[in-house]
Write a structure and sequence with these properties.
The protein is α/β, with parallel strands linked by helices and about 300 residues long. It has helices at about 1-20, 65-75, 85-95, 110-120, 155-165, 175-185, 205-215, 230-240, 255-280, and strands at about 20, 35-40, 40-45, 45-50, 80, 100-105, 125-130, 135, 140, 145, 145-150, 170-175, 190, 220-225, 245, 295. The structure holds flavin mononucleotide.
């Protein structure tokens, strides 16, 4: 029963995304450029890797899946993310040269949170953050791979922001109230996400995105979206609805498992090609210009 309900949020999300269609604006249009400026850096496309954890060495290859997709992110010059792991694994990811944001768990052991944030900064991370959507489970506070999670107050989050020179990114925002709190504590970005359907019947991130964008208007905070992103069309819709960029997720896994770094590079380049085609066909020359004027969204 629980499994069925958990998978529902992913299905609801995909159905919602697929219900949004795209019109054309061809006359006077030119070929689009995908480069973005994000938190002071230039990246080659508004696509990011997911904050993954626990990927082993596929097919006995030299590097873990985490390192392989990080190497691919560096090759494609996109922002890289990673999730729950110990410091030695993070060091290996940092050593790939990818510009990486380390998403730390909301550990009950606050010393571990602070240690991992500080280690990431010393190891040369691009940014740090926390996935706040792993605080609760069905039995109270969540336990993730044997580690207790705990409540994170605004004061705690603000203290993490103040503890680091790096941009702090809150992952797992799915409502306007949390989005505003993130801006208030000084986070530099949020990831609008339901963490591949942890919350049964979660609203599709893209559905809540326009409200979050409106609520954060004028605030110094970037918006990333994830969940169900598997194509250039998905990235386009995410940006048109208010995101600055979108992160792929499990859609990256088949290429990663079968062909490692090259599989992920091919997958990301495929997304880029489709995104460029759609942007060019709808009259947008750069990602920051994209708005919802070419979208056909079904009436509620
Ligand atoms: C194998 C695996 C490990 C993950 N580990 C983490 C993690 O440690 N921290 C985190 O914030 N999200 C983690 N996620 C969630 C992803 O970052 C992302 O939010 C989610 O996969 C997006 O949904 P999608 O797969 O439907 O695109 C993990 C997902 C998978 C599939």
């Amino acid at each position: 029963m629980a499994y069925t309900r958990l998978s529902d949020a992913n299905e609801i999300t995909e159905r919602y995304m697929d219900s949004i269609l795209i019109g054309e604006k061809l006359i006077d249009s030119t070929v689009a450029d995908l480069k973005i400026s994000f938190l002071g850096e230039t990246f080659d496309m508004p696509v990011m890797t997911p904050a993954f954890s626990h990927l082993s060495n596929y097919n006995g290859r030299q590097y873990t899946g985490l390192e392989e997709y990080s190497i691919a992110a560096a090759k494609c010059n996109i922002l890289n993310f990673c999730g729950m792991m110990e410091n030695d694994m993070f060091k290996k990811i940092a050593d790939t040269g990818a510009k990486t944001v380390r998403i730390v768990k909301p550990y009950a052991d606050n010393g571990k949170v602070r240690d991992q944030l500080a280690f990431a900064e010393d190891a040369g991370a691009f940014g740090v953050g926390m996935d706040i959507d792993h605080i609760f489970g069905e039995d109270g506070y969540d336990v993730v791979v044997g580690e207790d999670m705990a409540c994170q107050t605004m004061d705690m989050l603000r203290s993490y922001v103040e503890s680091t020179k790096l941009p702090f990114i809150v992952k797992g925002v799915l409502g306007v109230e949390d989005a505003i709190k993130c801006a208030d504590i000084g986070a530099k970005a949020i990831i609008v996400s339901h963490h591949h359907g942890r919350l049964p019947y979660a609203v599709p991130p893209m559905k809540v995105l326009p409200k979050i964008k409106e609520a954060l208007d004028g605030r110094d905070i970037k918006i990333i979206v994830d969940c169900g992103i598997s194509s250039g069309a998905d990235v386009y819709k995410a940006i048109a609805l208010g995101a600055d960029a979108a992160a792929v997720g499990r859609s990256m896994l088949p290429g990663l498992e079968s062909k490692g770094v090259d599989g992920v590079v091919d997958f990301l380049n495929g997304i880029a090609r489709e995104l460029r085609f759609i942007m060019s066909s709808t009259g947008f020359t750069k990602p920051s210009d994209i708005d919802d004027s070419a979208l056909w969204i079904p009436a509620e």
